[in-house]
Design goal:
By secondary structure, the protein is mostly helical. The protein is built from 4 helices and no strands.
Length: 89
Amino acid sequence: MSTIDKASLPLAENPEWTDRMVANAVRIDALSPSLQAKLRGRPKADLTKERTTIRLSRDVLERFRATGSGWQTRIDAALKEWLTQNQQG
């Protein structure tokens, strides 16, 4: 999840607001609910994941990263599969 620090953008890409821009601005709660949802981004998942730090061997990381976008989700799935196969009790 990457956000852009607009203050670091060149002035041409992040111009100062003019009086006209301010006059034409609309509060988000004045927009239709469907447009509000689009502007607010992806909805929060019912089951969220927890951020953690884990040390993995370089070859494991390289192989998962080589599979493209979603490699962290695939590591999560592989760990869940291991837990299922190695249940005790």
